[in-house]
Amino acid sequence: MYNDDIRIIDLTPENIADYGVCGYKDVAKHKELQNKIKWFKEYYPKGLKIKVLFSEKGGYQGMLEYLPGKYAHRPVNAEGYMFIHCIFVGFKNEFKGKGYASALLDECIKDSKHQKMVGIAVVTRKGSFMANNRIFLKKGFEIVDKAQPDFELLTLKFDKNATTPRFKSDILENLNEYKTGLTIIRSPQCPYTEKNVNAILESAREKFNLKPNLIDLKDFESAQRVPCAFGTFCIIYNGKVISHHPISNGRFENIMTKLI
To answer: Which of 124, 150, 167 is at the close of a domain?
Structure first.
């Protein structure tokens, strides 16, 4: 599976700017990368890990991000577990289907056992911006909870007697805080929320005559109170979630045209 071209690199506060995150490489140019690095440095002492799949020929080709479940940026109860935020492999097709995602997960499993965690938890769904459950089920994870519209919470337990993680019971109740108008919630944990959100805010004002409310999440407690299982991004209009993950301005305009 491995060859001399591929390495798994642990990002640190000292080297993260050298490798970038999620395809963003230019710190001076990309505000989303600046925000991600600042967020990384805040949670790194709390146990945050980002492992990068790096090819000498192809560059940055994948990553795995995880941290102790207490600090999960999803609305879950998963204390005692290691929690995976995201995993992907293959900006280039030649790096897909080679077993690299499995290798990244093996690193997480080994690290979690070494840190005496009771298991690992992850939220999955079909579609964009989040891994589906397939790779986790192959590793022995089990589906333990679900949240609207199609999110699943999976766990791999090391201690079979450990309390099973669950989605927060008040996810839908928290929508009551956003009954009127347009609200966009985002976190620096996900770097794909800078450029698109700015365009969405402008469209909301200029095209739909709305006064959008932008909420930048400041900490893990706030992310765990978001009324969407994605945790780090949500668009709400008049008390209804209209996007559960980052979207383009074009997609936003299509949604709003049907609603207004």
So the answer is: 167
3 state SS of 155: strand
C-alpha span between 113 and 105 (Å, rounded): 12
76-111 per-position pLDDT tens digit: 999 999 999 999 886 656 666 677 889 999 999 999
3-state DSSP assignment of residue 52: strand
CATH number at residue 233: 3.40.30.10
What is the token pair recorded at 138?
């192959």
Give the mean pLDDT per block of 10 residues along the chain (260 residues).
75 93 84 94 98 82 94 98 92 69 95 98 91 95 97 98 97 94 96 89 97 97 97 97 96 96
- Determine phi and psi for 153, rounding to 5 degrees: -105, 125
Please give the Cα distance from 110 to 82 (Å, whole number). Answer: 11
Q: What angle do CA 97, 98, 103 make, to 5 degrees?
A: 115
Domain extent for 225: 173-259
Look-up: residue for tokens 């909420």?
Answer: 215
The continuous run of DSSP H or E covering 104 comes out as: helix 100-114
Q: Chain-centre distance of CA 41, in angstroms? A: 17
CA distance 199 to 75: 27
Claim: this prediction has a pTM higher than 0.85? yes
204 by Cβ neighbours in 10 Å (0-12 / 13-18 / 19+) ranks as: buried
148 and 24 belong to one structural domain = yes
